[in-house]
Amino acid sequence: DGVLIHGLYLDSASWDDEKNLLGDARFGVMNPPMPIMHLLPDPDYVEESEGQYDCPLYKTGERAGTLSTTGHSTNFVIKCFLPTDMTREHWIGKGTALLCQLNQ
Fold first, then answer.
1. Sequence-separated (6 or more) residues with CB below 8 Å from residue 99
2. Closest among 3, 5, 100 to 57, alpha carbons compared
3. How far apart are CA 99 and CA 31, in angstroms?
4. End-to-end CA distance of the chain
5. What is the pLDDT at residue 91?
6. d(C-alpha 77, C-alpha 22), whole Å
7. Per-residue pLDDT at 32
């Protein structure tokens, strides 16, 4: 069930393969690729208050678009819950996001 997604990039973060967690960006590495993600929809899912970052996924790194009728930017795709050992505020302060494509 679900879907496997590849080809996404991290902005202002990196993926720690050893811990399987979101980690701070590595020096000199811009927009590292995100490993394959398995998305499994769950209509009864309840967000956890700790241990994950609800990371926005954008079509482009511009993070700008017109507001749609839902109140979200047309550049916004979905939020992805990524495991982390840091607070949400840490990632929000860095502007951490997932991107579908890199700016030219």
1. 8, 9, 10, 11, 31, 57, 58, 59, 60, 61
2. 100
3. 9
4. 35
5. 96
6. 20
7. 96
